[in-house]
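Task: complex structure prediction.
Instruction: return structure tokens for all chains below.
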Amino acid sequence: MASPNENAATPHDLLGGAPVFEAIAQRFYDLMDQDPAYAELRAMHAQDLEPMRRSLPRFLAGWAGGPRDWFEANPGKCMMSLHRDFPIDEVTAAQWAEAMTRAIADVAPEPPHVAQAMTDVLSRMARSMAR
Ligand code: HEM
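Output:
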């Protein structure tokens, strides 16, 4: 049976590593903060976005196969349970998915199949959080 190739590049590495995940998250929160199209999503978040600007890039990087420090600092924390207490509906879930789609397209478009796969999975995850 074939064993997994431990040297295989992860989505994290293929997209460009930590600086690119940092750029995706900062672009995402810039869009959320500045574009009125995301007003309802913005209103759900705390006034101070700095904690989220620090947390999201580390979560995304670990989730995409990079350094796991967010997961080590948050043992057992699950994104779906974490969001269960927020009043997420179809509107705010779609805003999250659209802002993330734009952020990836703006700062991490290469290689296209990896950028597209990440966009698809994150959009689906966001939409599945709506109630
Ligand atoms: C469906 C739309 C979503 C909405 C409306 C939403 C909203 C929120 C809100 C209100 C917070 C708390 C932030 C604060 O207190 O300022 C939060 C935290 C967070 N969200 Fe989301 N979120 C969504 C989807 C997602 C998705 C799909 C991901 C990841 C793939 C994600 C990752 C995070 C992370 C990493 C945190 C911080 C957790 C922590 O460090 O404790 N969110 N989200």
